[in-house]
């Protein structure tokens, strides 16, 4: 019914603008957090609305409304047209062609976490959080969190697109903070920043087995208080797969967004050290570096049937044997570069934001270095780092500095002392150029993040990255 | 209108509850390479219900304003609160209860012309920026935005409060074809408080024809422009003045209240009715906003609280009107109207005069905490980093990475400019909530540069 409303709206938009699209988004989003044996946050959000984007000459207009009636949609269209006309006139750029999207897509899941009772979800979290509280007074805060959401979309355009899709996702995590003698340390599992998320159901949360990991997490938080600081040195660095995923996200994924490369995001997110002419020739890293963007990966948060411009999901090789082969694009940026098709990377946060170039699931392909244990055993001396704690990178995605929750010495192929406040820094092409081993398929998995910010007004996007542990030579560590 | 809706929503609740309505109308025009790129208009209203059962809370939110939608959101909030209470039974929850009504003072943060959201205002602003940059053979990148936000709260304890604010913001990054860039920005409660041509001219003036030099890692005397100072203070707000983190021993001022934590010239307050700030009448629990001293003459005086953090702190602590969400945000309260008092130095040029060799920083970018309790941050400089030589701001520098503690910088502050500026990034994620820091530029010693941007 809503798709018919959107299609009718687009029928009426033809002739009033060069192009128009309308997107209806119906979102349910639930957050649960427990702390100290009590529920800290239990909130449930529903939102529904329509966003209409139009193109007049070279200008865009976008208007969003919560009024999902035909009248509300018409008013949004009129407002979008008015805004587009008010922009200073500019040259019209082309849009890469696309066949009209038709049909329905849905992500796979066994049990929608939104349909699991609040009592069961809280019981699960409380049990995990209780296992964090060992009785050690140095644990000053302990928490277990869970988020579940379901997003239904309908999309229509003046080019004849009419499709619907549904994503079901959830994730959870635990964290413990220890304080003492002026020091504050945190340990998290399985990821920092709220947990590990996937396009999946309650079965994903159960598989994380939070309670089983809680005693180790709390013990490590306390142990870190008196651990020696990570010494400043240049050494071999082995990263856990989760930190590799973030490294890929920040220094490869964002750097290869074509709108950034074309300076379209210079006012906020920034530009890129990569230029349009680099595609097909730039050496991005060592021969061990192979990276893809895949919107068809099951269970990944950056998967869909069609992007938010109606471009079908695809798998794209970005870096092959260290050489840049493609960039992430939407229809406008692809056409500007002279490509004959968009890479299908236009995504929008809810109904009240317009699509912009976002990562799909940008992943480093597995190598031949086996498991994390194999990688450590193959390393004579160095530092191992796990679980992101801090991240910062410049506006060209070139100079970065990351810190993790925990580090460990590597001595003669074995993990040694725990190290406090570990950090490392680098320059993107030098760092990836020093990649000398990537874990194998047995150590490769998806790492789902929900906090990627970009755009004005701000948009938060969820995406997954496939990654395995990896090793880098000659890295500056202990920088903070 | 919004208060009536809040009361209608409250009517669907049972027991202790708060209904909050937020209505946003906003317009954002983006531009790049002196061309408009995106223009986004939002008109949305959300109704949030906070239900309280035995000291436990549950909340729900919707933008369905029908009676069915309001009834449903009230039921979901009630079910959430019951589930929270049931999960912890028989232990009572930590939430101290909804606040009693208190009168909120008037403010001048609403402008009727701004609330019209005329798209032509955006068009005129963009043209002015394009022209100012073109006059220097530069391209303009940035945004112009204006918005109106109405907020109403009705609660079972008798709070019936309504607020209406507007805000306007424009930033311009002027850039040449070699990538050298300069920054200008302005924020105000009304669009008449912005001068797009002047903002663009300030940005263009920071782009020089000189080839940028490199600065080696080390410690330097620094002049931080107001935009850079504002970013640091915003982080200080969450790392040092969050009453929940402080009560849990995680805050940077843990054990340091009443002691000197900054130079004696540092006077920092949260002043919601200070000139140039973006005022609002009450916080997310309906508690009236009021001025609060945080650092006086370099001595740490207090932290901010919402109802939940005040209860956690005990010892007579009360909400200071800094709740970010109904019932208090899970991450704790945060000051939203920080004001750092100015000093006696005329401007940034005069601040630079005593520096033999140092750097001038226009703004900071991608800043994140490295060690929260030490207020240790890392980030980059951006859009106007210059060398200071023999007391003069001279050549441009390539952007550098800094890793330094905010409180150390405050302690090492040597002088403050007399002029203050409202620093606001207007990077609205979710519902529009305009806030900013009013602050001067400053000079400090020992600024720690830890890396450079080189390819």
Explain the overall architecture.
The complex is a heterodimer of chains A (480) and B (455). Chain A is α+β, with helices and mostly antiparallel strands and 480 residues long. Chain A is built from ten helices and 23 strands. Chain A folds into two domains: 2-225, PmbA/TldD superfamily (PmbA/TldD fold), CATH 3.30.2290.10; 233-477, no CATH class. Chain A is 21% helix and 40% strand. In chain A, strands 1, 2, 3, 4, 5, 6, 7 and 8 form an eight-stranded mixed β-sheet that branches. Chain A has a five-stranded mixed barrel with strand order 9-16-17-19-23. Chain A has a four-stranded antiparallel β-sheet with strand order 12-11-10-15. In chain A, a hairpin with an 8-residue loop joins strand 13 and strand 14 (356-357). In chain A, helix 1 (2-13) runs parallel beside helix 2 and helix 3 runs parallel beside helix 5 (210-225). Chain B has two domains: 2-205, PmbA/TldD fold (2-Layer Sandwich); 218-452, no CATH class. Chain B has helices at residues 2-10, 67-88, 112-115, 119-134, 196-205, 226-240, 243-247, 307-313, 348-352, 406-411; strands spanning 16-32, 35-53, 56-62, 139-155, 160-175, 181-188, 218-224, 268-270, 292-296, 299-300, 338-340, 357-371, 376-389, 392-396, 400-405, 413-416, 421-423, 437-439, 442-452. In chain B, the strands form four sheets. Chain B has a six-stranded antiparallel β-sheet. A five-stranded mixed barrel of chain B has the order 7-12-13-15-19. Chain B has a four-stranded antiparallel β-sheet with strand order 10-9-8-11, with helices on one face. In chain B, a hairpin with a 4-residue loop joins strand 12 and strand 13 (376-389). In chain B, helix 4 (119-134) runs parallel beside helix 5. Chain B is globular, with a radius of gyration of 23 Å. Chains A and B meet through strand 1, strand 2, strand 3, helix 2 and helix 3 of A and strand 1, strand 2, strand 3, helix 2 and helix 4 of B. Strand 3 (59-65) of chain A pairs parallel with strand 2 of chain B, so a sheet runs across the interface.
